[in-house]
Amino acid sequence: MDLISNLALGFSVATSLENLVFCLIGVLLGTLIGVLPGIGATATIAMLLPITFQLEPVSSLIMLAGIYYGAQYGGSTTAILINMPGESSSAVTAIDGYQMARKGQAGAALAIAALGSFFAGTVSTFLVAVFAPPLTVVALKFGAAEYFSLMVLGLVMSIALAHGSVIKALAMVVLGLLLGMVGTDVYTGTPRFTFGITNYADGLNFVALAVGVFGIAEILRNLENEGDREVLTKKVGRLWPSRAQMREAFGPVLRGTGIGSVLGILPGGGAVLAAFASYTVEKRVSKNPREFGQGAIAGVAGPESANNAGAQTSFIPLLTLGIPANPVMALMIGAMIIQGIVPGPDVAVEQPRLFWGIIASMWIGNLMLVILNLPLIGLWVRLLQVPYFVLFPIIMAMCAVGVYSVASNTFDLYAVAGFGLLGYVMSRLRLEPAPLLLGFVLGPLMEENLRRAMILARGDATTFVTRPISATLLVLTVIVLVVVLLPAVRRGREEVFTESDG
Amino acid sequence: MTDKNNTDILCGLALLAVAGLFGWQVFSLPIGTATRMGPGYFPMVLSALLALLGVIILFKALRSPEPDEAKGPLAWRGMAFILPAPVFFGLTVRGLGFVPALFVTSLIAAFASGRMKVWQAVLLAALVTGFSTLVFSYALGLPFRRFGPWWPF
C-alpha cells in the first residue's frame, strides 16, 4: 500500500519533536491573534508569515499550517462569543453560535465547533492523501495553455464568491495582476513599473502586500470608530456539551464534512461556499427549522465542519497544481516560493517528505487544536477583553519586524505603508482585497504561461480552445461568469450575504 | 446623502486613474507581437481591461445610482500615526539599530488611538521592544544590529 507507507513517511516527518513544537507554536500564535476581534484568518496569517521564514522549508510550512488552523478556530471563537466573525466563512457560525452564547451555552458551542472541525479535519486529511497523488499525474499532463486557462477559471471563481459587486471584484483581480507585473521581466530583463527604484527590481514583496492590504488596512478600519465594541459579559457556561446535544450535532457534522470536502476542491474560496451550503442544507433537513437563528446546534456544527473540511481539501489544488484556491492558499504559495519551492505537481515526486509531511501535519494541527483550545477557552475569553488600543501598537511592531526580516530590504517597509493606505482606500471604496491578492500571486505565473503557450502555438491564439483540457476549463469559466452575472443568481447571492451580515 | 452613489463614482475614477498610470508606463516598454510577446504586452491588455472596468463602474453609478451606504468617519488620526510607523522603522533600523528603531516605531503607532496616555504608550513600547529583542534577536538569531552606527558608543 503506497498510501500507508506515504502517510507513515509524512507522520514520521511531522511528529519529529522539532516539528511538533513548531506546529504547537503555530496553533497557539494563530489562535492568539485570530481571537482578537476584527482580525480575520487571512490578516492573522499575513502578519505571522514572516516568523516562519527563518525555519527550514518543512518546519516552516508545518508551522504555517498550524497558524492557519489556529487562526480559523480563533475566528470561530470571536464569532460565537461576541458575534464578530473575522472572516466570511465564520460569518455563518456567528448566526447561531452567538445565540447559543447568549443563552449561556457558549462553552457547548465552542466545544462542538472544535469537535466537529476535528472530525471534518480527520476525514478530509485522509481525502487529501487519497486524491492528491492521482491528481498530480493529471497535472503533469498540463501544458502552458492548460495552466493559463486553469488560472483564468480560478480567478473568475474567486470573483463569483467574493462579497459585493462582481465588476469591482474583477477590477481588483486585474489590479492584482498588474501589481504582480512590477519588477524585472523574466524573458527580457526589462524593468517594469519600478519608477527607477532598483530595490523593486525583484518585484513587490508579497508579504508587504499581504500585511499592508489585510493587516494594516484592518487596523485602520478598526480605528474609525473606537468605542463601540461590545464587551463580553456573559458566562461561557458548561464546556462539555450534553449527550443530547452531541447526538443532535452528529448528523450535521457528517453532512457538513461531505459538503465541505467536495466544495473545498473548487478554486475560488470553497470554504466560504461550504459553510453557507451546509447551513442551508441543515435548515432544510431540520425537523424544526424555526430554531435556526435562535441558537440551533446544527447551525454551528454543520457549517464549522464544512468550513474546516473545505479548508483542508483546498490544499489539493495547491499541492497538485500550484494554484491557490483562496487568499490563504495564496499566502501559502507565497511562503513556498520564498522557501525556494515551486508549488505544483513536481513537489509530490521530488520532495515526498515535504508533501506528506504537510498532509500529516494538517491532522496533527487539528488534533492540537482540540487538545489545546478546549482547556484554554477561558484564556481566550479573557484576551477578548484586552482593549484594542493596547493591541495594535504591538501588531504594528510585529508587522514592521516581520516584513523587514523577510529580505532585510527597507523598501519593503515603505511598500507596507503604501499598501496599508491602498487597502484602506479600497475598503472605503468597497473593493475586496482577496481577489487582489490572488491576482498578485497568479500574475507572473499567468503571464509566463500565456507567453509560453503563444510561442509554442506560433502565435495562434486558438491553442487555448483547440486543446481539450484547456477548452473545457475555459467553457467552465464562461459558464461561471454567465451564471454570476444573471440577475436571478445575483439576487440570490445578495440574499446569502446579507443573511450573514445580519 | 445625495441621490448618486459617490462611493462608486470615486471608485470608477480611481480605477481609471490607476489604469492610466500603468498605461502611461507601458508606453516605454516594447509591446512585441502576439507570438513573441514583449514585456509590455500583457500589462497593456490588463491596463486596458482595468480602464474598461473603471468606465463600467462609473457609468453604472451615474446611470442607475443605488443608495450609498452609511460609513464611519475616516480614520485620519489612525492614518497619521499608523502609516508612518513602518516607514520610520525602515529609515532608522540600519542607522539607529533594531532596539531604538523598534521602540520609536511602537511609540508612534501607539498614538494612533486617542485613548492612549503617554505613560501607557511609553510602557507598552518598552515592553514590545524588550520582548521582540528577546525573541527575534536572541532566540531566533536574526542578523539585526541591536544598536547601529549612529550611536556614539
Q: Please, could you describe this protein's structure?
A:
Chain B: Pfam families: TctB (PF07331). Chain B: It comes from Falsigemmobacter faecalis. Chain B: Keywords: Membrane, Transmembrane, Transmembrane helix. The complex is a heterodimer of chains A (about 500) and B (about 150). Chain A contains 22 helices and 2 strands. Chain A has about 500 residues and is mainly alpha-helical. Chain A has one domain (about 1-500). A two-stranded antiparallel sheet of chain A has the order 1-2. In chain A, strand 1 and strand 2 form a beta hairpin. Chain A starts with a helix and ends with a helix. The mean pLDDT of chain A is about 80. With about 150 residues, chain B is mostly helical. Chain B folds into 2 domains: about 5-65; about 75-140, no CATH class. Chain B has helices at about 5-25, 40-65, 75-80, 85-90, 100-110, 120-140. Chain B is flat, with a radius of gyration of 24 Å. The termini of chain B are far apart. The relative contact order of chain B is 0.11. The interface between A and B is large, with 67 and 73 residues.
Instruction: State the largest interface.
Output: A-B, 67 and 73 residues
As a percent range, the share of helical residues of chain B equals 55-70%
The topology string of helices and strands of chain A comes to HHHHHHHHEEHHHHHHHHHHHHHH
**Strand segment count of chain A:** 2
Question: What structural category do the secondary elements of chain A indicate?
Answer: mainly alpha
Quote the distance from N terminus to C terminus of chain A: 50 Å
Major beta sheet, strand line-up of chain A: 1-2
Shape of chain A: globular
Strand content of chain A: under 5%
Domain DUF1468 (chain B): 10-144
Organism (chain B): Falsigemmobacter faecalis
Protein name (chain B): Tripartite tricarboxylate transporter TctB family protein
Pfam families (chain B): TctB
